[in-house]
Amino acid sequence: MLRTQLYLTPEERQELSALSRATGRKRSELVREAVDRLIAGSRRERRQQVLTRAAGLWSTRQDLPDFSQLRREWGRG
Prior knowledge:
The mean pLDDT is 90. Helices cover 64% and strands 0% of the residues. It has a domain at 13-54. It is mostly helical.
């Protein structure tokens, strides 16, 4: 693990300390969990943004086969 310093407002520090006492977990552990959740949510959001940008990417292509017909032929229709 790498050591990182961060600044908290007095209210954030107070609430984090209260949560630490209530759960019996260290503040650093709670901060890491919060960072992990933020990163996971951001990954999902970035993935959704990529998929949204890709939607319809080939909609104007004229050289592609009829995928609906192909799916019916494969029995996936």
